Protein backbone atom coordinates (compact mmCIF):
# COMPACT_ATOMS: atom_id res chain seq x y z
CA UNK A 1 0.00 0.00 0.00
CA UNK A 2 1.22 3.49 -0.82
CA UNK A 3 2.09 5.25 2.34
CA UNK A 4 3.83 8.27 3.87
CA UNK A 5 6.13 9.05 6.79
CA UNK A 6 6.44 12.56 8.15
CA UNK A 7 9.50 13.44 10.16
CA UNK A 8 8.33 14.42 13.67
CA UNK A 9 11.56 16.37 14.28
CA UNK A 10 11.64 20.14 14.01
CA UNK A 11 14.20 21.37 11.50
CA UNK A 12 17.48 21.24 13.31
CA UNK A 13 21.15 21.57 12.63
CA UNK A 14 22.54 18.45 10.98
CA UNK A 15 24.70 16.77 13.62
CA UNK A 16 26.55 14.76 10.96
CA UNK A 17 26.13 15.87 7.35
CA UNK A 18 27.60 12.51 6.10
CA UNK A 19 28.73 14.35 2.95
CA UNK A 20 30.86 17.14 4.36
CA UNK A 21 31.12 20.64 2.95
CA UNK A 22 34.84 20.10 2.48
CA UNK A 23 34.18 17.04 0.33
CA UNK A 24 31.56 18.93 -1.68
CA UNK A 25 34.17 21.64 -2.27
CA UNK A 26 36.59 19.02 -3.58
CA UNK A 27 33.88 17.68 -5.89
CA UNK A 28 33.33 21.18 -7.26
CA UNK A 29 37.05 21.60 -7.89
CA UNK A 30 37.19 18.19 -9.57
CA UNK A 31 34.32 18.80 -11.97
CA UNK A 32 35.12 22.47 -12.61
CA UNK A 33 38.54 21.39 -13.83
CA UNK A 34 36.86 19.10 -16.39
CA UNK A 35 34.77 21.49 -18.52
CA UNK A 36 34.37 18.86 -21.23
CA UNK A 37 32.01 17.05 -18.84
CA UNK A 38 28.96 19.10 -19.74
CA UNK A 39 26.03 19.86 -17.39
CA UNK A 40 22.75 18.05 -17.85
CA UNK A 41 19.69 20.24 -18.52
CA UNK A 42 17.33 21.63 -15.91
CA UNK A 43 13.91 21.89 -17.57
CA UNK A 44 10.96 24.01 -16.51
CA UNK A 45 8.03 21.71 -17.24
CA UNK A 46 5.19 24.18 -17.34
CA UNK A 47 2.53 21.75 -18.59
CA UNK A 48 3.05 19.47 -15.58
CA UNK A 49 3.07 22.45 -13.19
CA UNK A 50 -0.25 23.58 -14.60
CA UNK A 51 -1.76 20.11 -14.51
CA UNK A 52 -0.76 19.60 -10.87
CA UNK A 53 -1.75 23.16 -9.86
CA UNK A 54 1.79 24.11 -8.88
CA UNK A 55 3.72 27.26 -9.63
CA UNK A 56 6.83 25.66 -11.09
CA UNK A 57 8.14 22.14 -11.69
CA UNK A 58 11.86 21.95 -12.38
CA UNK A 59 13.26 18.69 -13.72
CA UNK A 60 16.97 17.96 -13.58
CA UNK A 61 17.35 15.50 -16.43
CA UNK A 62 20.12 12.95 -15.88
CA UNK A 63 19.10 10.71 -18.78
CA UNK A 64 22.27 11.58 -20.68
CA UNK A 65 24.88 12.24 -18.00
CA UNK A 66 28.37 12.30 -19.50
CA UNK A 67 27.18 10.10 -22.38
CA UNK A 68 25.66 7.41 -20.13
CA UNK A 69 21.95 7.03 -19.47
CA UNK A 70 21.91 7.51 -15.69
CA UNK A 71 23.31 9.86 -13.05
CA UNK A 72 25.53 7.25 -11.40
CA UNK A 73 28.74 8.14 -13.24
CA UNK A 74 28.84 11.41 -11.27
CA UNK A 75 29.60 9.56 -8.07
CA UNK A 76 31.81 6.88 -9.57
CA UNK A 77 34.17 9.20 -11.47
CA UNK A 78 34.77 11.26 -8.36
CA UNK A 79 35.28 8.15 -6.21
CA UNK A 80 37.85 6.79 -8.68
CA UNK A 81 39.67 10.10 -8.50
CA UNK A 82 39.72 9.96 -4.69
CA UNK A 83 40.79 6.31 -4.71
CA UNK A 84 43.73 7.16 -6.97
CA UNK A 85 44.69 10.09 -4.72
CA UNK A 86 44.56 7.90 -1.62
CA UNK A 87 46.51 4.98 -3.11
CA UNK A 88 50.08 4.84 -1.94
CA UNK A 89 51.22 1.88 -4.02
CA UNK A 90 51.21 1.64 -7.81
CA UNK A 91 49.75 -1.19 -9.82
CA UNK A 92 46.33 -1.41 -11.36
CA UNK A 93 43.68 -2.90 -9.15
CA UNK A 94 40.75 -4.95 -10.33
CA UNK A 95 37.65 -3.10 -9.22
CA UNK A 96 34.38 -4.80 -8.36
CA UNK A 97 30.86 -3.89 -7.34
CA UNK A 98 27.30 -5.13 -7.12
CA UNK A 99 24.58 -3.15 -8.83
CA UNK A 100 21.03 -3.22 -10.12
CA UNK A 101 22.61 -2.00 -13.36
CA UNK A 102 23.31 1.72 -13.49
CA UNK A 103 26.06 1.87 -10.89
CA UNK A 104 27.70 -1.17 -12.50
CA UNK A 105 27.71 0.45 -15.90
CA UNK A 106 29.26 3.59 -14.41
CA UNK A 107 31.95 1.55 -12.66
CA UNK A 108 32.65 -0.32 -15.90
CA UNK A 109 32.98 2.97 -17.83
CA UNK A 110 35.20 4.63 -15.23
CA UNK A 111 37.37 1.51 -14.90
CA UNK A 112 37.93 1.52 -18.65
CA UNK A 113 38.92 5.19 -18.54
CA UNK A 114 41.32 4.61 -15.65
CA UNK A 115 42.72 1.43 -17.22
CA UNK A 116 41.41 -1.03 -14.61
CA UNK A 117 39.64 -4.35 -15.08
CA UNK A 118 36.12 -4.43 -13.60
CA UNK A 119 33.79 -7.14 -12.27
CA UNK A 120 30.12 -6.28 -11.91
CA UNK A 121 27.70 -8.50 -9.99
CA UNK A 122 24.04 -8.17 -10.95
CA UNK A 123 20.94 -9.59 -9.24
CA UNK A 124 19.22 -12.70 -10.60
CA UNK A 125 16.70 -11.78 -13.27
CA UNK A 126 18.57 -8.70 -14.57
CA UNK A 127 17.36 -8.01 -18.11
CA UNK A 128 19.81 -8.82 -20.94
CA UNK A 129 19.95 -5.16 -22.08
CA UNK A 130 21.57 -4.16 -18.77
CA UNK A 131 24.06 -7.02 -18.94
CA UNK A 132 25.00 -6.04 -22.50
CA UNK A 133 25.42 -2.38 -21.57
CA UNK A 134 27.98 -3.37 -18.93
CA UNK A 135 29.86 -5.98 -20.94
CA UNK A 136 29.88 -3.38 -23.73
CA UNK A 137 32.00 -1.18 -21.45
CA UNK A 138 34.50 -4.03 -21.15
CA UNK A 139 33.63 -5.33 -17.67
CA UNK A 140 33.05 -8.96 -16.65
CA UNK A 141 29.49 -9.53 -15.47
CA UNK A 142 28.36 -12.11 -12.94
CA UNK A 143 24.59 -12.56 -12.65
CA UNK A 144 24.15 -13.96 -9.15
CA UNK A 145 21.45 -16.24 -7.75
CA UNK A 146 20.41 -13.50 -5.34
CA UNK A 147 18.65 -10.15 -5.18
CA UNK A 148 20.55 -6.88 -4.76
CA UNK A 149 21.64 -7.35 -1.14
CA UNK A 150 22.75 -10.94 -1.76
CA UNK A 151 24.81 -9.73 -4.72
CA UNK A 152 26.43 -7.07 -2.54
CA UNK A 153 27.42 -9.75 -0.03
CA UNK A 154 28.71 -12.13 -2.69
CA UNK A 155 30.93 -9.54 -4.33
CA UNK A 156 32.28 -8.50 -0.92
CA UNK A 157 33.24 -12.12 -0.17
CA UNK A 158 34.79 -12.70 -3.60
CA UNK A 159 36.68 -9.41 -3.49
CA UNK A 160 38.13 -10.26 -0.09
CA UNK A 161 39.35 -13.61 -1.39
CA UNK A 162 40.68 -12.28 -4.72
CA UNK A 163 42.06 -8.96 -3.52
CA UNK A 164 39.75 -6.83 -5.70
CA UNK A 165 38.98 -3.25 -4.80
CA UNK A 166 35.29 -2.74 -4.05
CA UNK A 167 33.67 0.41 -5.40
CA UNK A 168 30.24 0.16 -3.80
CA UNK A 169 27.56 2.82 -3.67
CA UNK A 170 26.08 1.21 -0.58
CA UNK A 171 27.88 1.02 2.76
CA UNK A 172 28.13 -1.60 5.50
CA UNK A 173 29.78 -1.63 8.91
CA UNK A 174 33.46 -0.92 8.35
CA UNK A 175 32.99 0.11 4.72
CA UNK A 176 31.82 3.65 4.17
CA UNK A 177 34.63 5.78 2.76
CA UNK A 178 33.99 4.97 -0.89
CA UNK A 179 30.18 5.27 -0.55
CA UNK A 180 30.74 8.74 0.98
CA UNK A 181 32.90 9.77 -1.99
CA UNK A 182 30.25 8.46 -4.36
CA UNK A 183 27.52 10.42 -2.59
CA UNK A 184 29.72 13.52 -2.61
CA UNK A 185 30.10 13.14 -6.39
CA UNK A 186 26.31 13.14 -6.79
CA UNK A 187 26.11 16.63 -5.29
CA UNK A 188 27.59 18.04 -8.49
CA UNK A 189 24.15 17.71 -10.12
CA UNK A 190 22.78 20.08 -7.46
CA UNK A 191 25.62 22.54 -7.83
CA UNK A 192 24.80 22.57 -11.54
CA UNK A 193 21.07 22.89 -10.84
CA UNK A 194 21.63 25.84 -8.49
CA UNK A 195 23.34 27.78 -11.27
CA UNK A 196 20.57 26.76 -13.67
CA UNK A 197 17.50 27.66 -11.62
CA UNK A 198 18.76 31.22 -11.00
CA UNK A 199 17.23 33.79 -11.24
CA UNK A 200 14.29 31.75 -9.95
CA UNK A 201 14.33 31.34 -6.16
CA UNK A 202 15.45 28.18 -4.40
CA UNK A 203 12.71 25.54 -4.85
CA UNK A 204 10.20 25.19 -2.00
CA UNK A 205 10.35 21.39 -2.11
CA UNK A 206 12.59 18.71 -3.56
CA UNK A 207 11.66 15.11 -4.32
CA UNK A 208 14.39 12.53 -4.85
CA UNK A 209 13.92 8.79 -5.33
CA UNK A 210 15.86 6.27 -3.30
CA UNK A 211 17.17 2.75 -3.59
CA UNK A 212 19.66 2.40 -0.74
CA UNK A 213 19.34 6.15 -0.17
CA UNK A 214 22.68 7.41 -1.46
CA UNK A 215 21.25 10.09 -3.74
CA UNK A 216 18.64 11.05 -1.14
CA UNK A 217 21.41 11.51 1.40
CA UNK A 218 23.57 13.52 -0.99
CA UNK A 219 20.65 15.78 -1.86
CA UNK A 220 19.26 16.27 1.64
CA UNK A 221 22.71 16.92 3.06
CA UNK A 222 23.55 19.41 0.30
CA UNK A 223 20.36 21.42 0.77
CA UNK A 224 20.62 21.37 4.57
CA UNK A 225 24.20 22.63 4.49
CA UNK A 226 23.59 25.28 1.81
CA UNK A 227 20.33 26.72 3.10
CA UNK A 228 20.06 25.72 6.79
CA UNK A 229 16.63 26.46 8.29
CA UNK A 230 15.53 27.99 4.96
CA UNK A 231 16.15 24.82 3.04
CA UNK A 232 13.42 23.32 0.83
CA UNK A 233 11.05 20.69 2.21
CA UNK A 234 12.84 17.46 1.32
CA UNK A 235 10.86 14.38 0.26
CA UNK A 236 12.34 10.94 -0.46
CA UNK A 237 10.31 8.65 -2.75
CA UNK A 238 10.64 4.91 -3.26
CA UNK A 239 8.57 2.01 -4.61
CA UNK A 240 5.81 0.55 -2.42
CA UNK A 241 7.43 -2.76 -3.31
CA UNK A 242 10.73 -1.89 -1.60
CA UNK A 243 10.09 0.56 1.22
CA UNK A 244 13.40 0.35 3.10
CA UNK A 245 13.78 4.11 3.62
CA UNK A 246 10.23 4.51 4.89
CA UNK A 247 10.37 1.47 7.16
CA UNK A 248 13.72 2.51 8.61
CA UNK A 249 12.50 6.05 9.27
CA UNK A 250 9.29 4.69 10.80
CA UNK A 251 10.91 2.25 13.24
CA UNK A 252 13.83 4.54 14.07
CA UNK A 253 16.66 2.26 12.93
CA UNK A 254 17.82 0.68 9.66
CA UNK A 255 15.20 -1.92 8.70
CA UNK A 256 15.30 -4.96 6.45
CA UNK A 257 12.18 -5.20 4.30
CA UNK A 258 10.91 -8.03 2.14
CA UNK A 259 11.00 -6.45 -1.32
CA UNK A 260 8.57 -7.43 -4.07
CA UNK A 261 8.63 -7.13 -7.79
CA UNK A 262 8.58 -3.62 -9.25
CA UNK A 263 9.45 -2.13 -12.61
CA UNK A 264 11.52 0.43 -10.69
CA UNK A 265 14.25 -2.21 -10.50
CA UNK A 266 17.05 0.19 -9.56
CA UNK A 267 15.12 1.16 -6.44
CA UNK A 268 14.41 -2.42 -5.44
CA UNK A 269 16.46 -2.51 -2.24
CA UNK A 270 15.67 -4.29 1.01
CA UNK A 271 18.13 -2.29 3.15
CA UNK A 272 19.32 1.29 3.30
CA UNK A 273 22.97 2.21 3.15
CA UNK A 274 23.58 2.52 6.91
CA UNK A 275 25.95 5.48 6.58
CA UNK A 276 23.04 7.73 5.49
CA UNK A 277 21.24 7.40 8.82
CA UNK A 278 21.98 10.84 10.36
CA UNK A 279 20.77 12.60 7.20
CA UNK A 280 17.66 10.45 6.82
CA UNK A 281 16.58 11.34 10.35
CA UNK A 282 17.61 15.04 10.40
CA UNK A 283 17.32 16.39 6.86
CA UNK A 284 14.58 14.34 5.17
CA UNK A 285 11.14 15.78 5.99
CA UNK A 286 8.98 13.04 4.48
CA UNK A 287 9.26 9.67 2.79
CA UNK A 288 6.56 8.45 0.42
CA UNK A 289 6.16 5.10 -1.27
CA UNK A 290 4.51 4.91 -4.68
CA UNK A 291 3.20 2.16 -6.95
CA UNK A 292 4.53 1.39 -10.40
CA UNK A 293 1.55 3.18 -11.99
CA UNK A 294 2.83 6.51 -10.65
CA UNK A 295 6.16 6.03 -12.40
CA UNK A 296 4.33 4.89 -15.55
CA UNK A 297 2.27 8.11 -15.49
CA UNK A 298 5.46 10.17 -15.22
CA UNK A 299 7.22 8.24 -18.00
CA UNK A 300 4.31 8.87 -20.36
CA UNK A 301 3.84 12.48 -19.30
CA UNK A 302 7.50 13.25 -20.00
CA UNK A 303 7.41 11.38 -23.31
CA UNK A 304 4.35 13.34 -24.45
CA UNK A 305 4.87 16.84 -23.12
CA UNK A 306 2.53 19.80 -23.34
CA UNK A 307 3.19 22.25 -26.17
CA UNK A 308 6.40 24.15 -25.51
CA UNK A 309 7.78 21.68 -22.95
CA UNK A 310 10.71 19.41 -23.79
CA UNK A 311 10.31 15.70 -24.51
CA UNK A 312 12.20 13.73 -21.86
CA UNK A 313 13.03 10.01 -21.82
CA UNK A 314 12.68 8.62 -18.29
CA UNK A 315 13.17 5.02 -17.22
CA UNK A 316 10.94 3.63 -14.48
CA UNK A 317 13.31 4.35 -11.60
CA UNK A 318 14.09 7.72 -13.13
CA UNK A 319 10.43 8.69 -13.19
CA UNK A 320 9.70 7.75 -9.56
CA UNK A 321 10.14 11.28 -8.15
CA UNK A 322 7.80 12.92 -10.65
CA UNK A 323 5.31 10.08 -10.15
CA UNK A 324 5.47 10.78 -6.42
CA UNK A 325 4.81 14.48 -7.03
CA UNK A 326 1.69 13.63 -9.00
CA UNK A 327 0.53 11.31 -6.20
CA UNK A 328 1.19 13.96 -3.55
CA UNK A 329 -0.76 16.63 -5.43
CA UNK A 330 -3.68 14.50 -6.59
CA UNK A 331 -4.38 11.74 -4.06
CA UNK A 332 -5.83 11.85 -0.59
CA UNK A 333 -3.43 9.26 0.83
CA UNK A 334 -0.67 11.88 0.42
CA UNK A 335 -2.59 14.88 1.73
CA UNK A 336 -0.53 15.09 4.93
CA UNK A 337 2.66 15.58 2.90
CA UNK A 338 1.04 18.14 0.62
CA UNK A 339 -0.17 20.09 3.66
CA UNK A 340 3.05 19.84 5.66
CA UNK A 341 5.05 21.04 2.65
CA UNK A 342 2.41 23.73 1.92
CA UNK A 343 2.36 22.79 -1.74
CA UNK A 344 0.08 24.90 -3.90
CA UNK A 345 -0.16 27.21 -6.90
CA UNK A 346 2.79 29.34 -5.81
CA UNK A 347 5.15 26.49 -4.96
CA UNK A 348 8.17 25.51 -6.94
CA UNK A 349 9.34 21.88 -6.87
CA UNK A 350 12.56 20.26 -8.01
CA UNK A 351 12.49 16.64 -9.19
CA UNK A 352 15.25 14.58 -10.80
CA UNK A 353 14.94 12.18 -13.71
CA UNK A 354 17.75 9.84 -12.69
CA UNK A 355 17.83 7.62 -15.79
CA UNK A 356 16.83 7.31 -19.42
CA UNK A 357 15.52 4.17 -21.13
CA UNK A 358 17.98 1.81 -19.42
CA UNK A 359 15.58 -1.07 -20.14
CA UNK A 360 14.36 -0.25 -23.67
CA UNK A 361 11.79 -3.09 -23.82
CA UNK A 362 10.18 -1.94 -20.58
CA UNK A 363 10.25 1.66 -21.78
CA UNK A 364 8.43 0.73 -24.99
CA UNK A 365 5.89 -1.36 -23.12
CA UNK A 366 5.03 1.59 -20.86
CA UNK A 367 5.29 4.51 -23.26
CA UNK A 368 4.56 2.86 -26.62
CA UNK A 369 6.60 3.35 -29.78
C1 LIG B 1 18.03 5.37 -11.93
C2 LIG B 1 18.29 5.37 -10.47
N1 LIG B 1 17.63 6.24 -9.71
C3 LIG B 1 17.82 6.29 -8.38
C4 LIG B 1 18.69 5.42 -7.76
C5 LIG B 1 18.80 5.45 -6.27
O1 LIG B 1 20.07 5.66 -5.80
P1 LIG B 1 20.46 5.13 -4.35
O2 LIG B 1 20.58 3.64 -4.44
O3 LIG B 1 21.73 5.83 -4.07
O4 LIG B 1 19.35 5.50 -3.45
C6 LIG B 1 19.39 4.48 -8.53
C7 LIG B 1 20.32 3.54 -7.91
O5 LIG B 1 20.89 2.68 -8.53
C8 LIG B 1 19.19 4.46 -9.92
O6 LIG B 1 19.85 3.61 -10.71
How many structural domains are formed by the residues? 2
Helices and strands, in order, run as: EHEHEHEHEHEHEHHEHEHHEHHHEH
Side-by-side strand order of the widest sheet: 1-10-9-8-11-3-2
The share of residues in extended strands comes to 5-15%
Cofactors and ligands: pyridoxal-5'-phosphate
Helix content: 40-55%
How confident is the prediction overall: mean pLDDT? 97
Explain what this protein looks like in three dimensions.
This protein has 369 residues and is α/β, with parallel strands linked by helices. It folds into two domains: 4-70 and 183-367, 3-Layer(aba) Sandwich (Rossmann fold); 73-168, Rossmann fold (3-Layer(aba) Sandwich). Helix content is 42%, strand content 14%. It is built from 15 helices and eleven strands. Strands 1-10-9-8-11-3-2 form a seven-stranded mixed β-sheet, with helices on both faces. Helix 3 (73-86) crosses helix 7 (177-186) and helix 7 crosses helix 9 (214-227). The protein starts with a strand and ends with a helix. The protein binds pyridoxal-5'-phosphate. Pyridoxal-5'-phosphate is lined by residues 70, 72, 100, 102-103, 169, 209-216, 266-267, 317-318, 354-355.
Amino acid sequence: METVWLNPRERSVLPDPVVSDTEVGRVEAFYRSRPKLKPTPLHRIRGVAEELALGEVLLKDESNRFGLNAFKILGVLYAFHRIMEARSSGGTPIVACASAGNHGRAVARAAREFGFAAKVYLPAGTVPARVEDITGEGADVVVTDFGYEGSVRQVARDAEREGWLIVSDTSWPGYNEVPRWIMAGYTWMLTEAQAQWAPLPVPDAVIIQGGVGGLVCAGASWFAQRYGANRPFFIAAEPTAAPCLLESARIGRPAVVQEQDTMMTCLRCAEISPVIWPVLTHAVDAVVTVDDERAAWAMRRLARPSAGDPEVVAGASGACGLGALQAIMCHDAFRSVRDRASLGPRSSILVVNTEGATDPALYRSVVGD
